[in-house]
């Protein structure tokens, strides 16, 4: 018989519910309104940090917002200004994105996938506003409201 740690079970249930809720908000905004695109695949993995490990430095609002924005900008730069085959462009863009997140102290691991999404999707510069910035703001706002006011956690973590 498998013994399940009660605190891990509670964290899993919280992560499940609030991740589905937050991604649900973005999905409704994307598919049921005329406001635009709010979903970014890497937001799914952001949920792991925001609701499973909100105390992590990688889950802090600055890291979430600027990590996603920076790596999307890098993806767009490589997509539009570096005329190399895609099998070279994607790894270089991911590498530069990761390096710049570390350099600027805005590391958010899920954002490491953004250059891949941007390049494969051949997105326009509008992608930075919607879904990257608007979606990031919505997931950060949800995380603050849910973690601080519903779950009574200290989020964002103040250092």
Oligomer: single chain
Strand content: under 5%
- In round numbers, the mean pLDDT is 96
Q: Uncertain segments of ≥5 residues (pLDDT<50)?
A: none
Characterize the largest beta sheet: strand count, sense, and whether it forms a barrel.
none
Q: What is the helix/strand order? A: HHHHHH
Q: How many alpha or pi helices? A: 6
Total beta strand runs:
0
Q: From the alpha-carbon coordinates, what is the Rg to the nearest angstrom? A: 17 Å
- Secondary structure class reads mainly alpha
Number of domains: 1
Ends apart, CA distance between termini: 42 Å
Shape call: globular
Question: Percent helix among the residues?
Answer: 55-70%
What does this entry look like structurally?
The chain has six helices and no strands. It is globular and about 55 Å long. It is about 65% helix and about 0% strand. It is mainly alpha-helical and about 160 residues long. It has one domain (about 5-150). The model has no long low-confidence stretch (mean pLDDT about 95). The longest helix has 26 residues, at about 5-30.
State the main characteristics.
159 residues, mainly alpha, 6 helices, globular
How would you briefly describe this protein structure?
The chain has 159 residues and is mainly alpha-helical. The chain has helices at residues 6-31, 41-52, 61-81, 86-103, 114-121, 129-150.
Q: Layout of helices and strands, plus pairs?
A:
Blueprint: H1 6-31, H2 41-52, H3 61-81, H4 86-103, H5 114-121, H6 129-150
Helix pairs in contact: 1-2, 1-6, 2-6, 3-4, 3-5, 3-6, 4-5
């Amino acid at each position: 018989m498998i013994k399940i740690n009660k605190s891990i079970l509670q964290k899993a249930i919280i992560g499940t519910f609030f991740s589905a809720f937050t991604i649900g908000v973005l999905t409704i905004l994307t598919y049921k309104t005329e406001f635009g695109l709010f979903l970014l695949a890497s937001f799914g993995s952001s949920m792991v940090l925001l609701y499973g490990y909100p105390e992590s430095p990688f889950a802090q609002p600055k890291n979430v917002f600027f990590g996603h924005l920076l790596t999307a900008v890098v993806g767009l730069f490589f997509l539009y200004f570096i005329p190399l085959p895609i099998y070279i462009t994607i790894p270089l863009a991911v590498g530069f994105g990761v390096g710049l997140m570390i350099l600027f102290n805005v590391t958010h691991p899920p954002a490491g996938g953004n250059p891949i999404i941007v390049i494969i999707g051949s997105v326009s510069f509008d992608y930075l506003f919607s879904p990257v910035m608007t979606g990031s703001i919505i997931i950060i706002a949800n995380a603050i409201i849910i973690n601080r006011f519903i779950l009574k956690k200290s989020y964002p973590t103040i250092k």
